[in-house]
Amino acid sequence: YASSFPSAILSYNFTQLRQAKLSYSRRVTRPNPFQLNPVPFREDERREFRGNPHLRPEYTDAIELGLQESRPWGSVQLNPYLRRTANAVRWIQLVDENGVTVSTFDNIASNQTIGADLNVTYRRGRLTLFGGGSAWRYTSDAANLPGDLSTRATAWSARANVTWALSKRTDGQLFANYRGPYATEGGSQRAFAMMNVALRHKLWGDQGNLSLRISDPFNMMSWGYRLADGRVIELSERRFGQRGVFVTVSRNF
Question: What is the H or E stretch that residue 36 is in?
């Protein structure tokens, strides 16, 4: 098959520190082998995954606006966008006649996402702060699939990375990320959160480090979903087992 992929970008500098960019692009995403593999895989007696060898590539048209302003203390970036995808490949879950939850991939007619992403960098003295967040409105047309799994959802996420220089050789860092729950085709995703805390001390000048990292200190990291098909309501939650304390010594020669 033959496809065209036009793109264009318009950039304007209001000042040396303030810039705006408007762009349009069309791109293709083809299924990967994992999504295409039809061999069933049973996680347990209640859940099964199988790929879909009939998946077609998806085409996305995107209009994006980028606004950036630099300041002595840091920078601010705001990126509103509109993306529309035809033949969108989506993760689909359903319950078969035996009560087993089957997870697979399929093409829905189209989906559309309207949203914005905000990033802020702040530096002052020993403090460096990177924060950001996203909010988007998702709409999908899945009338081509059995049961019409079309959905609409509003979702948001927030992230932060804070670094504090305790001394010239030692610094501490906190990273946190949160994504709120949102509806999907045939169900919904639970909220997701993660956090890491770390200390780093330089050794041998700048040739080595001693680091202490605490992963998921409050045991928040998990993933889950809610599935409802009119007959069955299924709730699932999984832990990643990432909670722990890690000590690392590195040396460059």
Answer: helix 33-36
What are the beta bridge partners of residue 94?
102
The DSSP annotation for 40-54 comes to -EEEETTEEE---TT
Alpha-carbon distance of 128 to 74, in angstroms, equals 9
Do the beta carbons of residue 132 and residue 159 sit within 8 Å? yes
Q: How far apart are CA 253 and CA 240, in angstroms?
A: 35
- The residue to which tokens 């927030």 are assigned: 158
Beta partners for 184? 187
> Which of 115, 105, 121 lies closest to 30, judged by CA?
105
Give percent of the chain above pLDDT 90. Answer: 71
The Cα–Cα gap between 201 and 209 comes to 6
How is residue 136 written in tokens? 């988007």
CA distance 182 to 115: 14
Is 250 or 232 the better-scoring residue by pLDDT? 250
* DSSP-derived secondary structure letter, 168: S
Q: pTM of the full predicted structure? A: 0.84
pLDDT tens digits, 172-229: 999 999 999 999 988 899 999 999 999 999 998 888 999 999 999 998 898 888 887 7
Contact residues for 253 (Cβ-Cβ < 8 A; gap 6+): 207
